[in-house]
Design a protein that fits this description.
By secondary structure, the protein is α/β, with parallel strands linked by helices. It is built from 18 helices and 17 strands. Strands 1-10-9-8-6-2-3 form a seven-stranded mixed beta sheet, sandwiched between helices. A four-stranded antiparallel beta sheet has the order 11-13-15-14.
């Protein structure tokens, strides 16, 4: 296929060049009606290119021609049978994949318990029963690793009627599962594997990056191009291969969730990014990886800061690691990751990918250069140099087994059941009716339908006092927690 072309990008350029005028949405008419203050903030080009996909841009797009061509180019670029573009993020894409595999099935779906909140939302939306796969826990560092093939095998033995399996790899920390081994375990039973690869859109384009799911047998994988690629926020692609998941069923499930007014800017950015990666991705990512290695070495030289690498890998840890995710343990300084991230934001206008009770993470991309990473390294060094007497870390960290809550109701049933908000202490022993999710990275500690224990309540409440953010709770301070109403 001709990867020098980007049909959606070309269509937008052609439309603008023709100076067409449509008596159709969007009502701003390419910015003519937009408030001048908004134009000044967002730029007029954003509105000039925001056009109705059908019929404004091209009648061929309305009938699937241009979009289908762009999706076929994407599938060819990454070695998939089919690719589907989403303008509603991987949150939509992963829900569509879950419904295509397990919707209407009684046996549920094997789901890694370290899944993102969007997957839990998919369970609530679809009514699919989760059959949880326990992640591997590093109790000393209070850190979870993706499940191993052996853990997935164990989950299949316990739940042989499940429709398929869903794992997350890479994790938001850059740690990766043995996807080849897990796919083999699933396929030995004739069952499909979905990989939430939201953090892995770049993986097909350089051999020094972790394994790309389509290369090792995954049946469906979902990527967020805005995370590690050059797409707009909400730009996502889900890829399919093989005969264990029907691509037409997958497309129909996506259509149930997709907006009927997709943003052509998001489509075009996906198309353009694919062309950029095919033509220049190897070199750009090679440069980014070299810069990441230099950055990791420079941060490692700062007293009390440890860039995590070897202890993230191994038999009892993760299978692989994306070096562009620079995870730094600051616990030896006596401070928390929350404190480090807050200081960098306040004093150096640097925002980090995530922070927790002992770590911060900086996500590098091919857009970074020595100037940007020098600012990061210098900022961390100045924070460390000025750290004299950090406030004591007062988070009650639970043991791994205390985080493995019992699921006693379907997430959907608990979410839609009659509920009540009770004081946090009284929520212990009750069934959760809401997600409780430290964000970032967005992995729920409590899922609707799980029985809440005291260790989790203490962890979340002391974590909030230390700087943790739990934004999706009804009460973000967790003075109260929403639970299923008592009978």
């Amino acid at each position: 296929m001709d990867h020098t072309t980007a049909p959606l990008v070309a269509a937008v350029a052609d439309y603008r060049g023709l100076h067409r005028y449509g008596f159709t949405p969007p009502g701003h008419r390419q910015g003519r009606g937009t408030d001048a203050r908004v134009l000044a903030a967002l730029g007029p080009d954003a509105f000039a290119s925001d056009i109705l996909v059908s019929p404004g841009i091209d009648d061929r797009l309305a009938s699937g021609g241009l979009l289908r061509e762009a999706e076929e180019l994407m599938a060819d670029a990454v070695g998939a049978d089919f690719a589907f573009f989403s303008t509603c993020g991987s949150s939509l894409s992963v829900k569509a994949a879950m419904m295509a595999v397990a919707g209407g099935e009684d046996g549920g779906l094997l789901v890694a318990r370290d899944s993102h909140k969007s997957i839990v939302a998919g369970l609530i939306f679809s009514g699919v029963r989760p059959r949880w796969i326990t992640p591997r826990w590093d109790g000393e560092r209070h850190f979870s690793h993706p499940p191993s093939p052996a853990q997935v095998e164990r989950a299949w033995r316990e739940n042989p009627d499940a429709a398929g399996a869903l794992i997350v790899s890479p994790s938001p920390y850059g740690t990766c599962a043995d996807i080849r081994g897990i796919a083999q375990v699933c396929h030995a039973r004739g069952k499909p594997l979905i990989v939430d690869e939201a953090w892995g859109a770049h993986l097909p384009f350089h051999p020094d990056l972790p394994t790309w799911a389509m290369d090792v047998g995954a049946d469906v994988c979902v990527v967020s191009v805005h995370k590690m690629g050059m797409g707009f926020e909400q730009g996502s692609v889900f890829h399919q291969q093989g005969d264990l998941v029907d691509p037409k069923r997958l497309s129909r499930c996506a259509d149930l969730l997709m907006t009927t007014s997709p943003n052509v800017l998001i489509y075009a950015a996906l198309d353009g990014w694919r062309r950029q990666m095919v033509e220049f991705g190897h070199g750009l990512l090679g440069d980014a990886l070299a810069l990441a290695r230099q950055t990791r070495a420079a941060i490692d030289e700062i007293t009390g800061l440890e860039v995590m690498h070897d202890h993230l890998l191994g038999v009892e840890a993760s299978h692989d690691l994306d070096l562009l995710q620079v995870l730094v343990d600051v616990s030896a300084t006596g401070a928390s990751g929350y404190q480090a991230a807050d200081w960098l934001r306040a004093h150096h206008h640097i925002d980090l990918g995530l922070s927790d009770h002992r770590r911060v993470l900086a996500t590098l991309s091919l857009a970074d250069d020595p100037t940007t990473v020098d600012a990061l390294v210098d900022g961390l060094a100045l924070w460390r140099a000025g750290l004299e007497d950090p406030a004591p870390l007062d988070i009650e960290l639970p043991e791994p087994e205390d985080l493995q809550l019992d699921t006693v109701m379907l997430p959907r049933d608990a979410f839609f059941a009659p509920t009540e908000a009770v004081p946090a202490a009284q929520a212990v022993g009750r069934i959760a009716a809401e997600q409780l999710t430290p964000y970032p990275p967005g992995i729920p500690v409590v899922v609707p339908g799980e029985r809440i224990d005291a260790a989790v309540v203490d962890y979340l409440r002391t974590g909030i006092r230390a700087g943790m953010n739990v934004p999706d709770a009804d009460d973000p301070r967790l003075d109260s927690i929403r639970v299923v109403a008592a009978a």
